[in-house]
Structure formats: C-alpha cells, structure tokens
Amino acid sequence: MPFDVQPYLKGELLELRPLREEDYGDLYAVAADPLVWEQHPDPERYQEEAFSGFFRNALESRGALAVIDQGDRRLIGSSRYHGYDEERDEVEIGWTFLARSHWGGVYNRELKRLMLDHAFRFVSSVIFLVGPDNVRSQRAVEKIGGVRAGSRPDGSGKQSLLYRIEASSRTGSAGSA
After folding, report:
1. Considering only CA atoms, which of 112, 100, 128 is closest in space to residue 37?
2. pLDDT tens per residue, range 10-42
3. What are the pLDDT digits (tens) for 76-101?
4. What letters, b where the CB count within 10 A reaches 16 and e where it falls short, cover 163-176?
5. CA-CA distance, 71 to 110, in Å (whole number)?
6. Dihedrals phi, psi of 36, to nearest 5 degrees
7. What b/e string do you get for 8-45 counting C-beta neighbours within 10 Å, with b at 16 or more?
C-alpha cells in the first residue's frame, strides 16, 4: 500500500486535511505573526512575499496538511510529510507552524500524534529536521519523543539537527506523542 501523504485525520481537538489553494488567506493570517517565525531559519516568513513562496511550495509538495481547530473550525496552522523513503523506511514530518493562540503543547502533541500514528502504518521511522537555533521546535520535538540523531541538510541545503522517532519506541499511540 503506498504512503498517503495527504490523509484526512481527526483527533479530539484537531482535524487535518490536505492543504488547498483557497486556504491561503486564512493560513497567511496565522503566518503573518512575526513571533511564529522568530527562531525559524527563515524569520521573514511572516512577510507576504516570503509566505507566498512557502505556501506555493507546500501545495506543490502534495504532502501539506491544513490544521483545523475542531472547536471553532478555524484554520490554525499547517504541517507536512516530506521525503518518504521506502528504502530507509522513513518519512519526515516538518514545516509545522501553529497560531500562537494554540501554543503550549496540547495542540502540537495531538497534531504530531495524529501524523505519527498515520506514518507508522507505512514506515518504522519518522524524522524531524530542526534549525540549530530553533530551540522552541527542538524542545517540542523532544517532548513528543524525538531523539537527536545527528544532523542533515534540510530541503534548502541548510544544516539542520536531525531528530528521530522509531515506531518500536512508542508504547501505544494515544498517550505517547
């Protein structure tokens, strides 16, 4: 069975669905907050020109997901699967950002739990590439069980910290991410 990189996933707090062209305005409203990007390797992504390139790449990746708050049905961020490698038996989860109103752990934990549960139906390892200065994202990945496993260039060629979560390291899906 081929890896479905744009599934529809539903949790208690969030719904994930494929990102669509018509999501641009709502997603840019979230991304326009400079604090969302302050530790990111591209801290200018809050500016519309930088964000429009990011959004176009997300659509072209065919792995991007819109993150919807089930409480009020607002789009609150996005994430994506990338680089599915059947030979390595891994896929990357990345490009994740959430509205600051949804920071603090519970939303990111559910987002990643949904994505990890789905990924582990197809692969035994999920990787996360995090900028060396992005301490906030490093901590978030560690909180969901990511173990630092060296470094690797990201999609733009910048050296990033490599975190890995193995399916075998998770004890049941519901409470581990």
Report:
1. 100
2. 999 999 999 999 999 999 999 999 999 998 888
3. 999 999 999 999 999 999 999 999 99
4. bbbbbeebeeeeee
5. 14
6. -60, -30
7. ebebebbbbbbbeeebbeebeebbeeeebbeebbebeb
25's tokens:
């305005």
Record the tokens describing residue 77, joined without a space: 């961020």
* CATH code assigned at 51: 3.40.630.30
Asked if residue 30 belongs to a domain, the reply is yes
Instruction: Please state whether beta strands 75-85 and 9-10 pair in parallel, antiparallel, or not at all (unpaired).
Output: unpaired
Contact in structure between 53 and 47 (CB atoms under 8 Å): no
**Burial tier of 121 (Cβ tally within 10 Å: 0-12, 13-18, 19+):** exposed
**Side chain identity at 97, as an amino acid letter?**
F
Range of the domain at 43: 9-169
Beta strands in the chain (DSSP E): 9-10, 14-18, 64-69, 75-85, 90-98, 125-130, 147-153, 159-166
Half-sphere exposure of 129 (CA within 13 A, CB side): 19
